[in-house]
Amino acid sequence: MFDRSKKGEHALLVQTHAGRLEEDVLEEFTDLARSAGASIAATATARIDRPNPSTLIGSGKLDEVKAMAEASGADLVLVNHALTPIQERNLERYLERRVIDRTGLILDIFAQRARSHEGKLQVELAQLRHLATRLVRGWTHLERQRGGSIGLRGPGETQLETDRRLLQKRVEQLQKRLEKVEVQRTQMRRARVRSELPRVALVGYTNAGKSTLFNALTGAGAYAADQLFATLDPTVRRIALPGGNAMLADTVGFVRDLPHELVAAFRSTLSEAREADLLLHLVDAADPLREERIAQVDAVLHEVGAGDLPQLLVFNKIDRIEGADIRHDAQDGIPDDARRERVWISARDGRGLELLQAVLGKRLGLQHVIGRVRLPPEAGRLRSRLHQLEVVRGEQSDEDGWLIEVDIPIAEAERLAAGADGGVIRALLPERTPEW
């Protein structure tokens, strides 16, 4: 019987694939392992067209993995695939080493990164829920009966049953504590809503530079590093934009195949995204798979109920692209479902931040234009619309129509300017700068 060691950071990576091996998948898994603090001893690939229900991989590949582990001195095996409790137990028994699947690895990283009280509670809850499926009869100490001594004879209770009961009790305690924390967070969120400040949430693939941009825009000093899941806890700060202020929230980064229990555990972090007025979707511009990353983040956003919120795509790290410069790819009347607005910046160098702030102010309706417009008698519909928007600050009428003083958000003015009677509104708008 294999005695499961609690130690082990010299890891053998096992990358499974059904068809062609994707190098970026293996690279991301390697980054995950290093982010957890593991040193890479060796890497094995295993094609599994039909997963073995007992060990995931076939017996021949299993012998090969064991030989590689012994030759490299690895005391830990990391598998880039979800393992069932039986598969994990059988692999550990055969390989005589600790085996951790992708979910367990991400959970370990989360446990290291969580800093706030709420974050630690969420991580522990996710770990316990994952562990609950792993309480199988794989270790001899879990099969010992209590009883046998004086006063303790009788049917007794197996150690396995005791562990399950204690685990369930701890899960219930954590759920109650998290409910209290969630009530407090909801009250804080309502206070922000009452302040009438628009809310922006930073989302994106992990390591896209969200915390770096958050610090650049807010000066908050949030932890930022070139590693996966550098920060987990939601941080909300006020930012100054042209025309007014807004609230900016930094959220946890996403990866492909993010375990469902982690999505559920970090509901408070992701609620910042669900309840935002605008999602600032940050993308690593230098990543050759950036379009795939965008699709993967969109998939997670749909999963948490934020898929239909308006987005502003921000392509970060242009300092890593030769000849790249800041720019704003405006929509220019193209429907929202055809192409999204894009801003190209470098958060690390600070290039493009003013442009991003200007675009944010415009998208949130913070930038206003103030002026007077002369409406002829036949423009009654446009006059009515201005009153409906509550942008009229003064009005005079005569035989030639109306002279109206307006204070209107630029975004709303541009929508009105695109209409049949929008010529007078169009005259109020500033000329677009070359960088726009």
Can you give a write-up of this model?
- This protein is α/β, with parallel strands linked by helices and 436 residues long.
- It has three domains: 10-110, GTPase HflX, N-terminal domain (Rossmann fold, 3-Layer(aba) Sandwich); 198-363, Rossmann fold, CATH 3.40.50.300; 368-426, Alpha-Beta Plaits.
- 39% of the residues lie in helices and 20% in strands.
- The termini are far apart.
- The strands form three sheets. Strands 6-7-5-8-9-11-10 form a seven-stranded mixed sheet, with helices on both faces. Strands 2-1-3-4 form a four-stranded parallel sheet, sandwiched between helices.
- Helix 10 (290-303) links the parallel strand 8 and strand 9 (311-316).
- Residues 157-191 form a coiled coil.
| SS strand fraction | 15-25%
Tell me the overall shape.
elongated
Gyration radius over CA: 28 Å
CATH superfamily of the largest domain: P-loop containing nucleotide triphosphate hydrolases
Classified by CATH, the class of the largest domain is Alpha Beta
Q: Please, what is the oligomeric state?
A: single chain
Structural class: alpha/beta
Q: Which stretches are low in confidence, meaning pLDDT under 50 for 5 or more residues running?
A: 137-154, 333-339
Q: How much helix, percentage-wise, in residues? A: 25-40%
| CATH architectural name of the largest domain | 3-Layer(aba) Sandwich
CATH fold-level name of the largest domain: Rossmann fold
Total count of strands? 14
Termini separation (Å)? Answer: 68 Å
Q: Indicate the mean pLDDT.
A: 79
Main location: cytoplasm
Family: Belongs to the TRAFAC class OBG-HflX-like GTPase superfamily. HflX GTPase family.
Keywords: Coiled coil, Cytoplasm, GTP-binding, Hydrolase, Magnesium, Metal-binding, Nucleotide-binding
GO molecular function: hydrolase activity
